[in-house]
Amino acid sequence: MGNVRFARPIAKARRSLPTEISDGQGASFRSEGMAIFYRIVMLAAAVLASDGVAYAKDGQPAPWQIGFQNANTPIMEQITSFHTYVTIIITLIGLFVLSLLVYVMSRFNETTHPQPSRTSHNTPLEVAWTVIPILILVAIAIPSFRLLFAQYTFPKPDLTITATGSQWYWTYDYPDQGIHFDSIIVQDADLKEGQPRLLTVDHEVVVPVGKNVVVQVKANDVIHDWAVPSFGIKLDAVPGRLQTTWFRAEREGWYYGQCSELCGRNHAFMPIAVHVVSEQAFNDWLAKTKAASASQDEGGKVAEAQN
Q1: For the whole model, what pTM was predicted?
Q2: Strand 179-183 vs strand 169-174: parallel, antiparallel, or unpaired?
Q3: In this predicted structure, what is the pLDDT of residue 39?
Q4: Which residue has the higher pLDDT, 33 or 301?
Q5: Residue 196 has what DSSP assignment?
């Protein structure tokens, strides 16, 4: 009986719906549609506005960011330029194909063109749609190869760093300076004001500004990935293999990345922090770190002797 009770109102609503629309209620539906469209436009504007704020930050992501982080190396600047260049090309291709589809649907439908054409070949058109895509691919390939050569042509290094991935932290070595330390994520409860969550570490990589830094990447257990978006670096750390990349930071500041290869349960908690400082500040950090390392070594030797 409960089902019978609701059957008549539902049937009545179904019968009355077309009548309501035909009686002028369609205007309300149009106004509601315009309101929804207005909300979408305002949301898009807010996203773009917030994206401008996001670009004001260096070296880390920001809420609602839809583009790359600010480039801080020549390689990342080339990557950004190449991305913009290819985006323009594919946008023009998409608009061209869309216009062709609209033209064909409007010009060659049954109403406007009842007698279809029986044309089967058009030599100039066939040559055009073969040659033009080739030229587009060549136009994309030339800057692409230029970027690849720039990425893998290593300049003379001013500093060499070895990054070793382990579950789930990074170990860094400065072989020429005799420095070795582990870099582990700082827990939320220990974060200080201004430190980004899930990106802050207890010991960051420190490099001088404007110097060529070669990074040797490897892993102890599983495949990891050393990635810093602002530097244009994303390189797998593979057990048993030594991979190499390089960067030259153009501005001082803090630049963050994360392990970008799924490496287990705590994959999301392997941040990378690089502090770019002046050459004098870097030399001071070297001296301080060497002194701290020497004191730790002496303490370890004493403890070992006592045992």
Answers
A1: 0.74
A2: antiparallel
A3: 63
A4: 33
A5: P
